[in-house]
Design goal:
The structure is a homotrimer of 363-residue chains.
Chain A: E1 3-4, H1 5-12, E2 15-18, E3 23-24, E4 26-28, E5 37-40, H2 44-47, E6 57-61, E7 73-77, H3 80-91, E8 106-107, E9 112-113, E10 118-119, E11 124-125, E12 130-131, E13 136-137, E14 142-143, E15 148-149, E16 154-155, E17 160-161, E18 166-167, E19 172-173, E20 178-181, E21 186-187, H4 193-200, E22 213-214, E23 221-223, E24 228-229, E25 234-236, E26 243-245, E27 250-251, E28 256-257, E29 262-263, E30 268-269, E31 274-275, E32 280-281, E33 286-287, E34 292-293, E35 298-299, E36 304-305, E37 310-311, E38 320-322, E39 327-328, H5 329-340, H6 342-355
Parallel strand pairs in A: 4-5, 5-6, 6-7, 8-11, 9-12, 10-13, 11-14, 12-15, 13-16, 14-17, 15-18, 16-19, 17-20, 18-23, 19-24, 20-25, 23-26, 24-27, 25-28, 26-29, 27-30, 28-31, 29-32, 30-33, 31-34, 32-35, 33-36, 34-37, 36-38
Antiparallel strand pairs in A: 1-3, 2-7, 21-22, 38-39
């Protein structure tokens, strides 16, 4: 599939300049682009590498002096990073064509597939499941009993969706996603050491060793529209009610969403984040990679956490957090600076102690 | 399946009050319960929401003033959280019925299945494997050569058990579990930088760059009775002997147990915990979410770690730990408080320096 | 399969002493070894347990007084840990024999399998894929369209390789590996809060809540020769160009390599490490377990990080790092010591404040 510069610019709502009839087959970074590729140079530092490659056309920022880079044509856009989203969708070589249902798939006769649904080899769809129109189910996928998935879903190879999970439209699940595992919920016959420690902040008291008894997960999982989940990420089902993920949420690889968690809309949960059971997360929250959030806490709207932040208590809306334990990012950065000066502080105080008589009254 | 209040109370060893003939089909949170559901309200703050829902009956704590909540019946128990375990097992809608062996499963003729074993579609059971009676093997499961699994196991979709792994009775594996991957064990021909750094605590010396040679895993994995493992969690096999997980251990999603690790009985390993190679963990240990434990250390009985604790050295029995590096929880919390006061300490010392002649003798 | 002490020593380039005709069937730890097993005792503390077991022969360090341990024979080597690599390869009971292609595998007619390739039950190989000679593809593996894999690969059960991924020779993938998921790359129509926070280090300003638009991954993944990946680990494909992993890299369980990342040769990436998008890693880098690396940073050659180090900015070649945020290991250890003395410092300063008139001039 090839496009002219004019066609691409029109699709992106961007401005085409130069020889807009030039034909483009794919995209490339500036230094590696060949003559039939569109070079992607979102800012001047990237565009500087254009002469190293063979591109005749590039996508650049509005106002770029494109002719000076030796190009024959360009697509100019005020926010190239956003334009890249549309361009990448046009150019994606891996959009799975609908190929119908592979004969090796094992599909229960009571499952319902919408129009245009394709199912890859060796996938399993169990009784009562309903798959929305135009969905693409890859190879070796598992869809459990009574699952509902909206239209236009993409489930990559090896995705596993447990029983009774309900998912909205345009869902994307990367390889190995596991939705609907049982919640991690166990209880001891008598009050246990963990319960005691939570109350005492560190003292186990005289609690005796006990074995764990399982609380079964009676809830399932609800996922909104336009949600994407990364490779090998997990969402557990709820104890009594469902675990809930709102519309527009994006969840990266190896992230873990515990039982009973409720996440609002348009959140970004980066790789290896863990959200423990029964925690609630607002809308438009961004949790940086490897962030951890304790169970039963509340994170307000628009909160952002930096990488590896460990959230041990509630976070009010709008806060930007960093560190372990999480603190406001500006305060945490200030603390990091002070810690680098700590050896000097110890030296200073030691010096002062030698010169200063210690007050020994009253203590 | 429905139960009367009396039947449920009897099964749980709890006390039924009011109209104990009321019929219950499932459970719900107080605010969302309908008339045929049992509301779960383990403490007064939860019970306060009963009027928002339509429940006629609830499970409450011993001594609760159940009639005041507008209920017709109640189940009273001194520890509702524990009673919830039994109740949830009665009410679980997803207990997999034994459906025999699906014709699409690929089962080696030398594998042995106990009475009542069911095997889901597209699962693989290799030569010499033995599966205990009444076990439920889900869809797309892999069970390797000479694996032994005890009676009444539940293996969800996509579970993978490597060759020669031995597992006790009542094992539960959530979707995507991987037991029996090879240990991560590599060596350089000459002493390498990592070995040098461990000895010097930070100095690589003059070690040269080398490639890694693989140490094959000759051991396998032994797992005791009553163990559960979470979605996409991993246990590697041992180098020379087996990696060992004791009875009653519960392991959450995306946790990682390295080669040669030995874990005692009744431990709780929360989500995304990592335990590096050859570390030994005692009995009744609880490792909070995202805890990391270095290789070759020892964690004593009854140790508890808070979320994201990073254990870099041995921990004596009974300790409650928090932080990175791990410290006793009470000391760590005290340290966190002091760190919040650190800016003020710097200010104070700076002020004192201006007012105090520094002792310049002897240093 | 059994070997004599002489055969083993010869294969390892080590020295055999005593009755070198003794026959060995497998290996064991000293305390658990039986008469036909070779005990592995790499250092004196391990050898002390030899009398507890029944070994007649052991692998020991050069210069060991083997007769004093009651042995009839020994293999002596200057670096037993390295010799163990060769020994373990000889003794591995799980080397998968080439068994041809299982009839249940679904292999596109346009895929090409080299000589001696075996494919396990219920695996899928899509159109245009090419698998090198003598590769062992396990059960339930997925190999996508146009994938290239070099000779002598081992792909364990449930490995998933996405479309267009190219992999060198001798690749080993443990169960559940996912290569070639889409990169986690999203953009908002207008400048978003995360972009603002990066510039301001903590201030969201007046950015409004927006939904995320997806940037498709047009690149794929390139992996060099002699790479191993651990169970359920993930490598995402690049946005415009490929994500790249160099020769000789070893990646442990549940590690995450983001889109566009470039990793050099002979790196060791331990369990649960996360490397965020577009970060570049040099050669011979070792990242300890649970290390996190921010996006778009650079880590120089020979860098080593301790467990759970969080790298938020560039690290020059040769550094040994620890902590969150990462600092040079020796400085971080010094800081940890000072922090333990912090309560005393507060006490000292408080005492001094009482005894010292505060300078109130000029501030």
């Amino acid at each position: 599939m090839t496009y002219t510069i004019e066609q691409i610019a029109k699709a992106l709502g961007a401005r085409a300049v130069g020889d807009t009839t030039l034909s483009i087959s794919s995209v490339a970074e500036p230094a590696m682009a060949s003559a039939d590729q569109l070079a992607i140079a979102m800012k001047p530092s990237f565009a500087a590498a254009l002469p190293e490659g063979g591109a005749q056309a590039a996508m650049l920022w509005e106002g770029a002096d494109w002719e000076n880079f030796g190009l024959k044509a360009a697509i100019l856009t005020p926010r190239p990073r956003f334009a890249m989203a549309g361009l990448s969708a046009m150019m994606d070589p891996d959009i799975i064509a609908s190929v119908g249902v592979h004969p090796s798939a094992v599909i229960d006769p009571t499952a319902t597939l919408g129009d245009g649904v394709s199912v890859g080899p060796l996938s399993v769809i169990e009784a009562g499941a309903r798959i929305g129109a135009d969905s693409r189910i890859g190879a070796q996928v598992f869809i459990g009993r009574d699952v509902q998935i909206g239209e236009n879903a993409t489930l990559r190879e090896g995705v596993k969706i447990g029983p009774r999970v309900r998912i909205g439209a345009h869902y994307i699940a990367q390889p190995g996603v596991a939705v609907g595992g049982d919640g991690f919920s166990f209880v001891t016959p008598e009050e246990g050491a963990v319960e005691r420690v939570r109350d005492s902040l560190g003292d186990q008291g005289e609690t005796k060793a006990q074995s764990w008894t399982r609380i079964h997960s009676l809830g399932s999982v609800q996922i909104g529209d336009d949600v994407e989940m990364g490779a090998n990420s997990c969402v557990d089902r709820g104890n009594v009610r469902d675990t809930i993920i709102g519309n527009g949420c994006k969840i990266d690889n190896l992230a873990q969403i515990g039982h009973n968690v409720v996440i609002g809309n348009d959140c970004m949960i980066c790789a290896q984040v863990g959200i423990a059971g029964s925690t609630r997360v607002g809308n438009n929250v961004v949790l940086g990679g490897q962030t951890g959030v304790s169970d039963n806490v509340f994170i307000g709207d628009n909160v952002i956490t930096g990488g590896a932040t460990k959230v041990l208590s509630n976070v009010p809306a709008g806060r930007v957090m960093l560190g372990y334990p999480a603190a406001k990012m500006d305060k945490q950065i200030e603390l990091h600076k002070l810690l680098r000066r700590l050896p000097r502080l110890f030296t200073d105080v030691a010096a002062m102690k030698k010169g200063v008589p210690k007050d020994t009254s009253n203590d």
